[in-house]
Amino acid sequence: MTPPDERPSLRIGELSRRVGLSDHVLRAWETRYGLLHPSRSAGGYRLYSEADAERIRRMQQLLAAGLSAAEAAQAVLAQDGPAASAPGGLDLGELATALRDTLEAFDEPGAQAVLDRLLSDLSLPTVLRDVVMPYLRDLGDRWQDGTASVAQEHFASFVLRGRLGGLARGWGDGRGPRALLACPPYELHDLALMVFGIVLNRQGWRIHYLGTSTPMAELVRAAETTAPDLVVVAASTREALDPVRAELAELATRFPLALAGAGATAELAAGVGARQLAGDPVTEAELLGA
Questions:
Q1: Contact yes or no for 37/26 (Cβ under 8 A)
Q2: Under 8 Å CB-to-CB from 189, ≥6 apart: which residues?
Q3: Are residue 187 and residue 209 in the same domain, yes or no?
Q4: Distance between CA 67 and CA 130 in Å, rounded?
Q5: Which residue in 71, 125, 152, 271 has the fewest CB atoms around it within 10 Å?
Q6: Does residue 157 share a domain with residue 58?
Q7: Which residues pair with 259 in a beta bridge?
Q8: Which of 84, 110, 135 is the last residue before a domain boundary?
């Protein structure tokens, strides 16, 4: 097989068209993972090669197979040469495993030390997208199939909630657009929504957070008080959203509304007049703030 052409000839718009990803995502993968190797044209434009496009396609295939973004990028770069690691020589896979091991051993100081290491050496979005969110998804899956105990799930959630709460401090300050975030009645899982709010705040938004199991009447009253530029309702199951379809549809006639989480299907969002945030919470927040 002929290797892809390494000669830089593609502007980022053309690369975006060829691989079906926005230039925002491409730039994020370039800076975060070193996945692209652009050169500068005589006029100062960044130029990419067919080899860059091929790396992106391999990244997409690995993401579709279930790998996290960090794992997929490492695998792609490893095919091109020596095994890749995170900036500063960190191995994200090892640190993610260490976080899981300490949390499931009920070792709170150990887990905090791993989080300290991650947050001191990597960007906050990288830590949240490539370590925290994959761990939460894995924990939820194992809790559902009975291979993780209730005690493990409660302990890990408590430790991570405390850390996220610290990162959320002051997220209502500023002069940027306002986002009102809530879960519908009986939805008790809100850590992904917290992650979304933290990253959205880093993009300049002010966050008003209502959290788990919010009665719809209270959500409406909060929206009337805060006049948000966006209301986000997140749920982990469709069953949490179906009973409040009528209230969501009414809310969407008064405020910009987005539905997030595994329970927010495209059909449901379209049916109530809302936007669907289908991606991971970190990327969705970055795209809103772009």
A1: no
A2: 140, 183, 212, 236
A3: yes
A4: 10
A5: 271
A6: no
A7: 233, 276
A8: 84
Q: Is 89 left (phi over 0), alpha (psi -120 to 50) or beta?
A: left
For 186-267, list the strands marked E by DSSP. Answer: 206-211, 230-234, 257-260
CA separation for the pair 158, 163 (Å, rounded):
9
Whole-model pTM: value is: 0.71
β partners of residue 206:
178
Q: What is the residue-level pLDDT of the chain in tens, covering all 290 positions?
A: 444 556 778 888 888 888 888 877 887 787 677 788 777 776 667 788 888 889 999 988 888 887 777 778 888 887 775 434 444 455 677 888 899 999 999 999 999 999 998 888 788 888 998 899 999 988 888 888 888 899 999 999 999 999 999 999 999 998 999 999 999 999 999 999 999 999 999 999 999 999 999 999 999 999 999 999 999 999 999 999 999 999 999 999 999 999 999 999 999 999 999 999 998 999 999 888 76
SS3 54: helix
Q: Provide CB contacts within 8 A for 140, sequence distance 6+.
A: 153, 189, 236
Which two three-digit tokens encode residue 227?
Answer: 């006049």
CATH number at residue 159: 1.10.1240.10
H or E element, residue 217? helix 216-226
d(CA 181, CA 206): 11
Q: State how far the Cα of 195 lies from the Cα of 124, in Å rounded to an integer.
A: 10
- Same domain (yes/no): 278, 186: yes
Domain boundary among 59, 84, 109: 84
